[in-house]
Design a protein that fits this description.
The complex is a heterotrimer.
Chain A (H helix, E strand, L loop, with lengths): L1 E6 L17 E6 L4 E6 L9 H11 L4 E4 L4 H9 L3 E4 L5 H9 L18
Helix pairs in contact in A: 1-2
Chain B lengths: L1 E5 L7 H11 L3 E5 L14 E16 L9 H5 L5 E2 L2 E2 L9 H5 L5 E16 L2 E8 L6 H11 L9 E5 L6 H7 L4 E6 L3 H14 L5 E7 L5 H13 L3 E6 L3 H8 L11 H17 L5
Parallel strand pairs in B: 1-8, 1-9, 2-7, 2-8, 9-10, 10-11
Antiparallel strand pairs in B: 3-6, 4-5, 6-7
Chain C lengths: L1 E5 L7 H12 L2 E4 L7 H5 L2 E15 L9 H5 L5 E4 L2 E4 L9 H5 L5 E16 L2 E8 L7 H9 L6 E4 L6 H7 L4 E6 L3 H16 L4 E8 L5 H8 L4 E6 L2 H8 L8 H18 L2
Parallel strand pairs in C: 1-8, 1-9, 2-7, 2-8, 9-10, 10-11
Antiparallel strand pairs in C: 3-6, 4-5, 6-7
Classes of the chains: A alpha/beta, B alpha/beta, C alpha/beta.
Chain lengths: 120, 286, 275
C-alpha cells in the first residue's frame, strides 16, 4: 500500500508538515517496494480548494494512508469518500512518522478531530 | 500562536492596534492581510528582503493568428468577457470554458500576475505584505500565500499577528482560518454593531476564540454599552475599551506606533488590553 | 449618471457621503458593500421588494457518470474532485462557469442552485434605495454585486462601493459613468486614495475627490489634489457632533449646518458632471 506524508522537505529526514493543503511536498512510500517518491503539492498554488487539490493528487497516486497534522473539512470529505484513512502526527522527521504509524501510535483523523481548520 | 485582528466594518482601527500590540509583544511576525489597502508597513522603516511575483488567477488569451472569429467563445462565456474575439481581462474569470469550445484551439489560459509579495525586515520582526494590482481578483489566495510565506520564521513562544481587511468575504475567511484567536475591533456606532454581528457570525464557524475591543468607545457611551451587552449575551470577552484620542491621528500621520506617545490615553488602554489578552491566551508571557 | 463612490481605505465616509448626497439630490441610492451594507441604517427606507440571489453549482448524475474525471481536471477552482467511486462537488468554490458541463461526454452534469445572498429595494421620501446582502460564510461578493447592479432600472444612481481596490470595487465601477473618491486627511487615507485613483483611471470616467473628516487646514490630500490636478469637489469638516450623529445612525443632512454643506457639494458635483 502507499502511505503519503505531508513534508517540509524532500527526504525522509525532513520534518512532517502539519498542514495538509499547503505543505510543500508529499513523500509517498510504497510498502511493497520499500521505496518512496517525492511529489510537489499542487495545493500550494491554489487559494481556496488547496486541500482538495492536494487530496486529488494523492487519489491519483493511489495512496491509501495519509499522515499529516490536520485536514480541513473539504479535504476530509474527499479523503473519506475516496476511502483513504488519515492519521495525525506531530512535527517529527518523516521516517519517524512512518515508524509511529506502523506501531499504531498515531491517532486517526476524523471530522471531530479538526483543531484549527476550516469551517464547521 | 496566531492572532487575527479583524473588524467587519472598515476604519475601526485595526492597523493602529496591530502596530501597537506588535510593539508590546516579545517575538512577533506581522502579516498585512488587508491586501487591497495595505497600511501596516508604513509604520516601519523596513528593508525588503524578498520580493516575489504572485499569480492570483488566470486569464484567457486568444491567439489572433489561429482565431476564425466564429464567436462560439463569446456565446459560451457566462461572464460576458469576450466580445468580437477579444477578451476583457477585467471581466474574465479564468474558468477556461472558452478554451474547451474553441474549434481551432486558439485560446489558452495564462497565469496572471496580480501582486508583488514582500517579506520586509523591520527592527521588530518581519512583515509579510503585498502590493496588489488594482482591480485584481484572488485576494483570498494572496492572503493565504502571505500567511504561508512567513511561516518559516515562526518561533516557539512567538506570535503571528494578522492585520485583516474589512468585510466578510474570501480575504477575511482566509485570515480567520487556522488561527488561535480573533480580535474584533469595533466602534460604538450603529454601523459598527451591525457589522460586528456579521463578522462574529462568520468567526463562529471556525475553531478560533473571539475577543472584542471597542475603539473610540467614548464617542457614544450608550452604543458602547449596547455592544458590551451584546458581547455578554454572546459570552465574548471585551478585552479592551480604547478612548478617542487625538494622539492616534498624530501617530498615524507621523507614521509612529501609538506606543511611542507618552500621555496617550489610547496607548494606556491598549497596554491594558494586552495584559487582559495575555490572561486569556495563555499562562506564558508573550 | 451612475456615480460610484469609493475610497480604498475603509471607514473614510463613503456611506455618509453617498446617503447624504442621494437625499440632497433626490437621486437613487445603491448599497454595493454587500459584505457589510450599512446605508439603510441611515436612510431607513420602507422595503418593498426582497429576492434571493442564487448561484448555480453542478450535480452529478451517478448513473450517467463514467468517472472519467474530466470535469474535475477542467475545473480551475477545485470545485470538483474525483474520489475513487464518485465525483465530489464543493459548491462554495464553484464559480458557475459551465466548463464542467462542456467537457462531460455522457451528459452527467446538471446544475442546481443555492442562495448566496439577497437583494432588497425600497424608498424613502421618493428616493429609491437598493442594496445587496451577501450571506455570511459565502466567500464571493462579486456575483451578488453583479446581480444588484444588473437589475437596476434606468435612472441616475449613487453607487456606494465596498472598501478596497480589488475585484469587489472593480465590479461596481464597471457600471459607473463617473466616480467620487472619499478620503480622510491622513497618511493612510492618502496612501489608499492613490490606489483608488489608479483604479478609477483604468475606467476612463470623470472623477473627483471629497475629503471627509477634514481638518479645515492645508493638508496632504489637498496638496496631492493640487499637484496632480485632481478636482476637489469639497470637504465635510470633522466634528465630534457629526461623529455622534453618525454613531446614532442619523442622516447628517437633517442638521442645518450639514445640510448646507451637502447642498454645496451637490451643486459642485452637478456642475462638474454637467448633470
Amino acid at each position: 500500500m502507499k502511505i503519503a506524508v505531508s513534508a517540509t522537505g524532500q527526504n525522509k529526514e525532513s520534518l512532517l508538515d502539519r498542514r495538509f493543503g499547503r505543505c510543500d511536498y508529499f513523500l509517498v512510500f510504497d510498502t511493497v517496494t520499500d521505496d518512496f517518491k517525492v511529489i510537489g503539492n499542487l495545493g500550494v498554488a491554489s487559494g481556496q480548494g488547496a486541500g482538495i487539490a492536494a487530496a486529488s493528487q494523492l487519489i491519483d497516486e493511489n495512496v491509501s494512508i495519509i499522515i499529516t497534522g490536520n485536514l480541513g473539512p473539504n479535504a476530509y470529505e474527499l479523503v473519506e469518500k475516496a476511502e483513504m484513512k488519515a492519521y495525525s502526527c506531530e512535527e517529527i522527521p518523516v521516517f519517524g512518522a512512518i515508524e509511529r504509524f506502523h506501531k499504531n501510535q498515531l491517532p486517526e483523523i476524523n471530522a471531530a478531530g479538526n483543531a484549527h481548520h476550516g469551517m464547521k | 500562536m496566531v492572532i487575527s485582528v479583524l473588524s467587519g466594518k472598515g476604519g475601526t482601527g485595526k492597523t493602529t492596534v496591530v502596530a501597537a500590540l506588535s510593539e508590546l509583544a516579545k517575538k512577533v511576525i506581522k502579516v498585512d492581510c488587508d491586501v487591497d489597502a495595505p497600511n501596516l508597513y508604513l509604520f516601519y522603516q523596513g528593508r525588503d528582503i524578498e520580493k516575489k511575483d504572485f499569480y492570483g488567477g488566470k486569464k484567457a488569451q486568444i491567439n489572433g493568428s489561429l482565431c476564425i472569429e466564429c464567436d462560439i467563445c463569446e456565446e459560451v462565456c457566462k461572464f460576458g468577457a469576450i466580445k468580437n474575439a477579444m477578451v476583457d481581462p477585467f471581466t474574465c474569470e479564468g474558468c477556461g470554458a472558452c478554451t474547451i469550445v474553441c474549434p481551432r484551439k486558439a485560446i489558452s489560459l495564462e497565469d496572471e500576475k496580480t501582486a508583488d509579495a514582500f517579506l520586509t525586515q523591520t527592527e521588530k520582526g518581519i512583515i509579510s505584505r503585498a502590493r496588489m494590482g488594482v482591480g485584481s481578483e484572488g485576494s483570498g489566495k494572496l492572503v493565504t500565500y502571505l500567511r504561508r510565506n512567513v511561516k518559516r520564521f515562526e518561533e516557539d513562544n512567538g506570535i503571528t499577528m494578522i492585520d485583516g481587511s474589512p468585510g466578510i468575504g474570501c480575504a477575511v475567511i482566509a485570515s480567520i482560518t487556522d488561527t488561535n484567536f480573533v480580535l474584533i475591533i469595533t466602534e460604538p456606532t450603529k454601523s459598527g454593531l451591525g457589522d460586528l454581528k456579521r463578522i462574529l457570525e462568520l468567526a463562529e464557524r471556525f475553531e478560533t476564540q473571539v475577543m472584542v475591543c471597542i475603539n473610540k468607545y467614548d464617542i457614544n457611551q450608550e452604543m458602547s454599552s449596547q455592544i458590551e451587552d451584546f458581547a455578554k449575551e454572546q459570552k465574548l470577552s471585551v478585552v479592551g475599551k480604547i478612548p478617542f484620542d487625538k494622539k492616534v491621528m498624530e501617530s498615524v500621520n507621523s507614521l509612529r506606533p501609538i506606543t511611542e506617545f507618552r500621555d496617550s490615553p489610547a496607548r494606556k488602554a491598549i497596554e491594558e488590553m494586552w495584559i487582559c489578552m495575555n490572561r486569556i491566551m495563555t499562562t506564558k508571557d508573550f | 449618471m451612475k456615480v460610484a463612490i469609493l475610497s480604498g481605505k475603509g471607514g473614510t465616509g463613503k456611506t455618509t457621503v453617498s446617503t447624504n448626497l442621494a437625499m440632497t439630490l433626490g437621486v437613487s441610492y445603491v448599497d454595493c458593500d454587500v459584505e457589510e451594507p450599512n446605508g439603510f441604517i441611515f436612510l431607513n427606507p420602507s422595503i418593498q421588494k426582497c429576492e434571493d440571489v442564487f448561484a448555480e453549482y453542478p450535480i452529478i448524475d451517478r448513473e450517467k457518470c463514467e468517472l472519467c474525471g474530466a470535469c474535475a481536471k477542467v475545473c480551475q477552482f477545485h470545485a470538483l474532485a474525483k474520489a475513487g467511486k464518485e465525483i465530489v462537488a464543493f459548491e462554495k468554490l464553484c464559480h458557475d462557469c459551465g466548463a464542467c458541463k462542456l467537457v462531460c461526454k455522457t451528459g452527467a452534469i446538471a446544475y442546481t442552485k443555492r442562495s448566496i445572498g439577497k437583494l432588497e429595494s425600497g424608498s424613502v421620501k421618493d428616493v429609491n434605495c437598493y442594496r445587496g446582502i451577501l450571506n455570511v460564510g459565502e466567500p464571493m461578493a462579486v456575483p451578488v454585486i453583479r446581480r444588484l447592479l444588473g437589475n437596476l432600472p434606468e435612472e441616475d444612481h449613487f453607487i456606494d462601493c465596498p472598501p478596497g481596490t480589488s475585484c469587489n470595487v472593480e465590479s461596481a465601477l464597471k457600471y459607473a459613468t463617473a466616480a467620487i473618491l472619499v478620503t480622510e486627511p491622513s497618511e493612510f487615507g492618502l496612501h489608499d486614495l492613490k490606489m483608488a485613483v489608479e483604479l478609477v483611471k483604468l475606467f476612463k470616467i470623470p472623477y473627483g475627490i471629497i475629503i471627509n473628516k477634514d481638518d479645515e487646514k492645508e493638508n496632504i490630500v489637498k496638496s496631492y489634489c493640487r499637484e496632480n490636478k485632481i478636482l476637489l469637489y469639497g470637504t465635510v469638516p470633522y466634528s465630534m457632533e457629526a461623529a455622534a450623529f453618525y454613531s446614532k445612525g442619523m442622516m447628517l443632512c437633517d442638521d442645518e449646518f450639514h445640510k448646507r454643506i451637502f447642498d454645496q457639494l451637490a451643486n459642485k458635483i452637478k456642475e462638474a458632471f454637467a448633470w
